[in-house]
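Researcher: Batch entry, complex prediction.
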Amino acid sequence: MTDQPQSAIVAEKLTKSFPGVRAVDALSFDVRAGEIFGLVGPDGAGKTTTLRMLAGILPPDEGTATVAGFDVVRDPEGAKHDLSYMPQRFGLYEDLTVDENIRFYADLFGVRKAEREERSAQLLQAAGMREFRKRLAGKLSGGMKQKLGLVCALIHHPKVILLDEPTTGVDPVSRRDFWRILYELISEGVAILTSTAYLDEAERCHRVALLHQGKLLFCDTPANLKAKLGKGVLSVSSPEPRRLRSQLEHADGISSLVLTGDGVHVVVDDAARRIPEFEARLKSAHVPFDVIQQVAPTIEDLFVDAVSSGASPHA
Amino acid sequence: MPEHNNSVVVEKLVKRFGDFVAVDQLNLEIRKGEVFGFLGPNGAGKSTTIRMLCGLLTPTSGRALVAGHDVGREPEAVRQNIGYMSQKFSLYNDLKVIENIRLFAGLYSVPSNMLSERIEWALRMANLKGQENLITGTLPGGWKQRLALGCAVLHKPPVIFLDEPTSGVDPISRRQFWDLIHQMAEEGVTIFVTTHYMEEAEYCNRLALIFRGKMVALGAPSEVKRNSMKGELLLAECEPLGKAVEVLQSAPDVIDAAVFGNALHLVVRDAAAAVPQVEKYLSDQGISVGRIEKIRPSLEDVFVSLTTARDAGEERKA
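Model: Structure tokens for the complex:
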């Protein structure tokens, strides 16, 4: 890669097998300073294994990984002070207050008191948690706990942050708060690698790597990924979605059709050509429907298209 | 609508914990065979409502009928007529597939003369014929989740509660799962779904969004997207994003600003009027502005707009 010197994380052909399964298979990507990079894929795609290898706590079978300039395969402790890893179950002490948890992590990383005070005030402000400093961590809501975990993980000004599904189980409002903190960090030049099983969260990253069964399907910006689909996506709503589906599922030009709660979501070869065809077909079958409109493809459309073009989607 | 067409009827349902009103005068009617989504942020009263509907918690006032039984007076009968599935907690991972099915059949008191037929049915439904002796923990996510569903409906309940049923499952398995759910609904089973994931909410025939114990939106997903947003939505490409969000917090026309990848989503009262104002506001602050256009809100945009709009100036509850 041409911008290698600026890359905060470089993974090259990382491979890891567990008995009976190749969890990560020759995975290569890089994350630049000031970038939010998403590792996106369903459970079992290899996201956690990848993060653990980059964090220096799981040696890869093959391949190399450099984090903040340190070769974490040869020197797993080297990047410790420049790196923060937030696993799915971050170790908060439930019987300590918010402030006490922060102080504990600050002490672990040798952060001085004055710096700790300034940093925690800034982070708690960004997290919308200033009023909760004296609350026990165990009494916080799920979203607040995740945000406190992030504050603790950031207290020592790491240059590289690895987050494993930080927003799982968190409601959309707290998720937005969480992402706002991440966006604030990148202006400091931090590199953020975050994993998610929710494909719609990919849209919030600068670049994403889409993983499936340990392999990289795609790596690009969300906008480029969508452009790559090269197909049209149509949304049709109807008070009778099941009749709508049975009329459309055998129509020409459809590569995938999903029944949603009040209509269908269809991937087609040529939207401009298929819209009038579908309209005519539905009218002649007397299936009631609202307008057929072209919508932006989702990352899920792309994922399904890539995975099912190789194998039968109804296996 | 006659009551017998409704599987779930909720009238003026209230639950108080001390001074705190967790559920406040909630009304709902869910038709037989409907896939109904129940959404709301953490602490909105969602779990409290579901616990009441499952006969696990007595309402303070009001009433709720589930499959014809009153949740306050006949909680036992309610529990026998519902199935409950949460992808995360339903199964014993160190048991075999068949052992999980037998365990749930026992828990739900499936009569012994129907046992073998129901086990057969569950295996076929879950597409796990021939896999009976696999250890559950080793199954791929999509299989596990179909098994969990099979176990939850062994006793043929007319109403099923699903809690984030497809979180973390790959999209292809997820689509297959929802096909299964829609088939069950077609056969007359009523499905009550709770989730934080808007991708799942899209699969529901109708949605209710609750906030602070009260219903704030109700309708088909497309209706909710069209009608429930407070204001209009703009997509704005600008640089640097962090500063733009900060600046726009104090912009008079902007109700809310959130970062989405390389752009912002802005909630405004009137899109046409706001575009030139936002453009000027940002460029006056030295922020470079690209494309600004009105976009159709996603369910998530609606969700956030309805559950934060009332927060301005108020103290937030954890």
